[in-house]
Amino acid sequence: MPPKPSLTHFLCVPLGGAQLARSLSLFRDDVTSIMSFAVPHEAVRPLGTLHLTLGVMSLKEDGVQRATELLESLRLREMLAKIRASVPVNSTAQAGKVAGQGEAAAGDGGLSITIQGLQAMQSPSKTSVLYAPPVDADGTLYRFCQQLRSAFQEAGLIIDDNRPLLLHASIINTIHVKGARGGGRRREKLTLDARDILDRYDDYIWIEDMPVERVTLCRMGAKKIEGTEDDEAYEVEAAAAL
């Protein structure tokens, strides 16, 4: 079996803002405390790295150019308008703000996101990743992201792993804890029994009605942000405004 290609880029909806910064800071202070869950500090992802991943890529220079040109050519407002037009009126009315589509954003043709709760990527009793899902009662956000993903798949840019799109913001990932391994085997990931963490943060609101301003093509590998103690960010290769 040929080796898997190394991943170089990913398409995403970036997350940020003052509300998310406060929510993440409070969460980090709690779960890393030795009086609470004693999660390693490095396992909690920095604010600047939080995003909703739409797909990953393995690109050479010509592929980066093609991906950039494709992203910049997409008419995101028109795409979103067509998606909204296909949603039954009653569904849209009932979903309202619960769908994470604030009135201001929806009214001007844009989109906003609400991120709430916490879930485990693996078994809650032995997991290496905890993530926060978006609230998307009428499915507008999912369909919008799926159409973006499909455009890049059809162009042969996004790696097709035959898995459905899972919109999520990774909050904890133990792979970033240096020198920590679980179970005594060299390559085994550090895992957490996250059942109590999930119970405590089941309804936690990370962001409420955050306007989506852009979709970005980013390079893999977050880098430290100068002037900050522990924040990081991904290098943006290209972006399309919404």
TrEMBL record:
What's a BP term from Gene Ontology annotated to this protein? Answer: regulation of DNA-templated transcription
> A Pfam family in this protein?
AKAP7_NLS
The residue stretches assigned to a coiled coil in this entry are: none
InterPro entries according to UniProt? AKAP7-like_phosphoesterase, ASCC1
Under the cellular component aspect of Gene Ontology, which terms does the record hold?
A: nucleus
Q: What sequence ranges are listed for the domain A-kinase anchor protein 7-like phosphoesterase? A: 8-225
Name recorded for this polypeptide:
A-kinase anchor protein 7-like phosphoesterase domain-containing protein
Species source reads Cylindrodendrum hubeiense
